Amino acid sequence: MTSHAGSCLCGKVRFVAEAVETEHHVCHCGMCQKWAGGPVFATMVQGVTFEGEEHVGVYASSDWAERGFCRNCGSNLFYRMKETGQLLMPTGLFDDRSIFRVTGEIFIDCKPPGYDIAGDHPRLTEQQTFAMFEQQTGSDGA
What we know:
142 residues, mainly beta, 9-stranded mixed beta sheet, Metal Binding Protein, Guanine Nucleotide Exchange Factor, Chain A, single chain
């Protein structure tokens, strides 16, 4: 993992993430579809510092997680686990998006018809996804 910078659509919120996973999952859950208007391409990050933090709003989307957004342009900025602070950020926010590679899809049975993500990678159902989250964190994680 290495550091990478990025911003929201309007540029009022900029960030540097010191550690960025370049391999990531695509999420098709109902909450992510409502949040992003479609599937979410997000990656795990660590050591994030924000400029323009006064423009960051936070919404508690569940008992276990919250979602950040730019109050000016509405860009989705992050998904954060409340208990652990684990942070995921949409890959589209990063200045260099060529570094990312899809390695799996989660909540595949929630994906609407009409599109498919190319590639030979695991595609987990909602039940399989929750089982994976519970095994990894002891939480059901959506």
